[in-house]
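Justification of computing resources. Each target in the renewal requires a structure prediction run like the one illustrated here; the chain below, 133 residues long, is used simply to show the kind of job we budget for.
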Amino acid sequence: MDHVAGYALCLDMTARDIQDACKSKGLPWTLAKAFNTSCPISEFISKERIPDPGNVNIWLKVNDQMRQNGCTSQMIFSIPFLISYISEIITLEEGDLILTGTPKGVSAVQVHDELHAGIDDVVSMTFKVEKQK
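Resulting structure tokens:
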């Protein structure tokens, strides 16, 4: 963890309709994961602000209703394990992000929904789902 500069809150969105269409055609799902605004990222959080990344609460509200709420202690793989495993396969460079997963409760969002996500009382972000142009 000596090489970790800090953290960010990221929402890894998936366009399920596009994913389903790609699946049915036997195509890669890239378009379902790589669209405008598909991965909003919070401000940078220095590692001093999160002394124990293995024990922080992450939450997401959609239109003020709690959809996801979980602790990083519930993750299948610890953050140090993920960094070690990934770095054996991929050269990690300064500024790289590793998205670690999400608490249970993944569900669909609709155009105009307002998403509000956070990590404990450390950081939060709010945005609206907009229609793809």
